[in-house]
Amino acid sequence: MTTRELGPLDVEAIRADFPILARTVRDGRPLVYLDSGATSQKPRQVLDAERGFYERHNAAVHRGAHQLAEEATDAYESARATIAAFIGARADEVVFTKNATEAVNLVAYAMSNAATSGAEYARFRVGPGDEVVVSEMEHHANLVPWQELCRRTGATLRWFRVADNGRLDLSDLDDLVNERTKIVAIAHQSNVLGTVNPVREIARRAHGFGALVLLDGAQSVPHMPVDVGDLDADFLVFSGHKMLGPNGIGVLWGRPELLAGMPPFITGGSMIGEVYMDRTTWADPPQRFEAGVPMAPQAVGLAAACDYLSALGMENVLAHEHAITEYALKHVGALPGVRIVGPLDAEARGAAISFVVEGVHAHDVGQILDDRGVEVRVGHHCAWPLHRCYKVAATTRASFYVYNTVADVDALVEGVQAAQRFFGTAPSV
Amino acid sequence: MRMDDMYQEIILDHYRNPHNKGLRDPHTGEAHHINPTCGDEVTLRVAVEPAGGGLDGSAIVRDVSYDSMGCSISQASASVLTDLLIGRTVDEGMRTLDAFTELMHSKGQGEPDEDVLEDAVAFAGVSKYPARIKCALLAWMAWKDATAQSLEKKEGAS
Question: Which of A72, A107, A189, B118 is placed for a possible disulfide with A220 were both Cys, Cβ 3.0 to 4.6 Å?
């Protein structure tokens, strides 16, 4: 099978845009990069955009009246408009953060800060008797900030369980989401299982009780068309570096009336209305949540990444990844002694495939794969409680993106077989 | 072949047939260590008793036992540790620990002293892979804690 038969993307042309994919690793092995779930590689277009900003327009944005400051501010705000359009949002609904993790923290801290802020922020207050709902499949980034919010405020943390098939167990939805629920924070797509969660069903229930809904889109926004108008969520967070963009930039999208009613998380320059020695008022969103000189070159780079993905077409990206996922589920899943952790069918499932090789620890699988140039993630992938659900300490995860081919899956399969041979666990056939 | 260099036969032997695995009593100290990047864990017990002198560096490590879950490197390392340290004085054990730690941080350039490290010299190849150093050191760090605990406990009681 050639890469062109796989789907609507011209993968050969795409690969040519990514300089790093041409390098070799471990003494001359071609790089087979299967760790895009951790961070994606960057096309030349993104690198050029970031470099171009530094070379032509660099200045501190939203400060100063000189020409470079104007150009830098314009580039930054244009980038915001592009990134907002990528998720079907308005520019003033998009807040830039360091990454998805900071975006989750921004909301969690706004909620605890509301306790000591004025009456206009009462909507966000949480305290004893209130409940925060997450799931067992959350990345630590969408779990620990909520644990901490509950610890600070006296609210109670509750969670959806994950069924053995890798899907969210919604049987206790009616119990978990109730009149005490203040916010439901849930992964749109699991970084370990690949599961795409039925977020609209959960949001419908949550909104029935006036609860907020935050979606962790770190693994969905890079891989499928996401339109905030269709999601029925109140907040969406994602990271630039997982979607071909630079490190150091993430996004919080929020409904404008909610952002307007939230106290700030990080305070300082740029996020102010008026400042006196004894008090300060806040700027309107999004500036209220962007203290300090922002990451303009990274915003420009992320906008270039959005343009790159839009040119490919997110429907095409999804179709490509779906085809690879089906192929990988079939071929990795067929290996004797290999157990996939997560849904075994490709429906409502993204291109992250985690698995256990019986008798060989994930670290050792990863080491043998790495020796062959196949770069995967090993460990608990920042989802330790989820791994406990499956009673495994660690899994091996291959995650795919626009530049991966079925040949990459074949290299993975051969590498896993090599690991089984090396450690003497290859099942006899 | 790089993988044969890293996963030397000695390591694979200890991995497949670990020595002194399974927690034992009596013990004077116990430590539970976790590698937070991968979730591997070890619970390690030591039984330290004075050998004529006080409960200090001259005390004897009578027993080391452990229970653990993890990769071949962390499992083999724990097994090798027990072979090396049971019957030694605490001071000798600490010197061995230092030598092993130094070897693990040698980035593949170390020239280990086989008289001190015995089977543990096989881990030299692991030091070329920074992500695996913690695996190799996990049980050793637990031994250090459990031993320190044993000495403190007795000092407090006397």
Answer: A189
